[in-house]
Write a structure and sequence with these properties.
The chain is built from 2 helices and no strands. By secondary structure, it is mainly alpha-helical.
Length: 57
């Protein structure tokens, strides 16, 4: 699942940057790329443990 999300993030970044280079970029495509990027990053970062653990006290 992690590899799929990483590939999805990379595709969203490339598509978003490509859309920016056009003379008339499509705002809907850009918005979809941002949403896909944010959701994928949220799912990837949810697997990362927090620095603030109460067990250390």
């Amino acid at each position: 699942m992690k590899k799929i999300l990483i590939v999805l993030v990379i595709i969203a970044i490339i598509l978003g940057l490509y859309e920016q280079t056009k003379e008339k970029p499509n705002v809907i495509v850009e918005a979809i790329c941002i949403v896909v990027f944010m959701i994928a990053m949220m799912r990837l970062s949810s697997k990362t443990p927090s620095k603030n653990n109460d067990d250390d006290v």
